[in-house]
Amino acid sequence: MKMLKLKMICLILFLSINSIYAQQTPAPKQSETILITGATAHLGNGKVIENSAIGFQDGKFTFVDELSKANPNDFQKVIDAKGHHVYPGFISPNSTLGLVEIDAVSASDDEREVGAINPHIRSIIAYNTESRVTETVRPNGVLIAQVTPRGGLISGTSSIVQLDAWNYEDAIITENDGIHVNWGKSYANKKNKIEPSSAYKKNKKKLKDFFTKAKDYKKNSKERNLVYEAVQPILEGKAKLFIHVHGAEEMTEAIDFFENFGVKDMVIVGGYETYKVAPLLKEKNIPVLLYRVHSLPMSEDDAIDLPFELPKKLLDAGVLVGFENSGDMERMQTRNLPFYAGTAINYGVPYEEALKMLTSNTAKILGIEKEVGSIEVGKNATLFISKGDALDIIGNDIYKAFIDGRDISLESHHTQLYKKFQKKLGQE
Q: Would strands 60-66 and 52-57 be described as parallel, antiparallel, or unpaired?
């Protein structure tokens, strides 16, 4: 009874706080043509324009070139960004943004479903556009996310959203883009002794039984089954299969397992030991959404800076890489996503290649490269202007951001608190 009262108090406080301060009002549709001039434009596809002109109309890029080739009079609004930097919006894959607000309040936590096999569970239904956490990542350049469920053997289906919308329908870029499987470890640590995992074998058998039945579903079943229906897109090559796995041996087994079921479009998520199987990934054209770069090694035998070196190792092997951020405090940590690229640069990844790991590479991996991921004519005008280097924690100072050409707010409860205590210090 006491626990119930405590939960009710937490829920009331949560609702009260959010009634006082809600998400910033989504920006209206772009109504005038805009030209950004003079900035160093990092296009996200490996190219840089030093003295650039970036124009957009009706939410689409219409002009991307040197300033000398532009006519500012053709645009209704001109933004002088001389000395500053322009980037395409960063993309956060494998994210739980909008699915959990406060970890301690169960009523605000909707990231996982009960049961082990849930391919029919759609994360987009639970996505909350009013999240106060989401608005704290936009000022660091993260404007797009793949909203992904957690838990079980098959967590469910993810969707890709832009981070400034009234509701989830307005937010969607790609609905139901892929299904997420948690492959697990083949070993267990019992009393400081490494042993084969019995759960691993059982789970592998469960997956085999499920996919065997799912593959036979269309041929033999007369009754509708939503769970089996949910995996048909990945069996037919119409959606992606995201395999969450870290071990090299497990990766090899997982790839072989799903190839036997005819799955052609696979992505490794996490992939701590991908550098050990990089030739296999390159050969089979399997991309990687790489485990959080700012982490300690998973094995005590590994070098302390191995996580920092992984982007360079995979880049050198010719594997397509993007950054992901799952782990402790992952929603709040999303704002640090740009700095994973900064660390990768310090460990040998060329600047524009590291940027691609936040933008065009991730867009390709998620299948949204025709819409976003780079600043190119015809694509969605999702971009931002930073006073300095956006991949550096000191230089990342963003004062303008656009999603589909809409001039979005960069205010949050962080900026409100900053202004509040600025006044206090001023008074003192």
A: antiparallel
Largest CA distance in the chain: 77
Task: Copy the structure tokens of residue 96.
Answer: 């739980």
Q: Identify the CATH number of the domain defined by range 25-89+373-410.
A: 2.30.40.10
Nearest alpha-carbon partner for 375 in 81, 13, 3, 149: 81
How do residues 280-305 score in pLDDT, each as one tens digit?
Answer: 999 999 999 999 999 999 988 899 99
Q: What is the pLDDT of residues 344-384, one digit of tens each?
A: 999 999 999 999 999 999 999 999 999 999 999 999 999 99
Amino acid identity, position 195:
E
Segments in 317-403 forming alpha helices (H): 330-333, 337-346, 351-356, 360-366
- Which CATH code is given to the segment(s) 90-372? 3.20.20.140
Tracing tokens 């950004």 back to the chain, one arrives at: 36
Closest CA to 326 of 182, 207, 126, 131: 182
- The whole-angstrom separation of Cα 324 and Cα 270 is 7
